[in-house]
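REVIEWER CHECKLIST
Item 1: Sequence provided? yes
Item 2: Single chain? yes
Item 3: Sequence as submitted:
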Amino acid sequence: RVRIEGKERACRAEAVADDPEAIRKALAEFLAHFPQDAPYYDIGLSSDGHPVEADLERAARRTAWVRVYPQ
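Item 4: Structure as written out by the authors:
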């Protein structure tokens, strides 16, 4: 179960640890919405606010991502 917008929701979760390209894409999308979180992943931002690609690729190799699917 997860809490979304103050409500408990049933869900299924899947850990992704062995697909760096999928993790890189997920991190890039996440940081597009929450760039202030880039330091937690040791990812720098360019002058236009986008993640530095080399940092993003390095972070994707050492990060696990959790996908959550509503039930």
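Item 5: Key structural point noted by reviewer: The radius of gyration is 14 Å.
Item 6: Recommendation: ____
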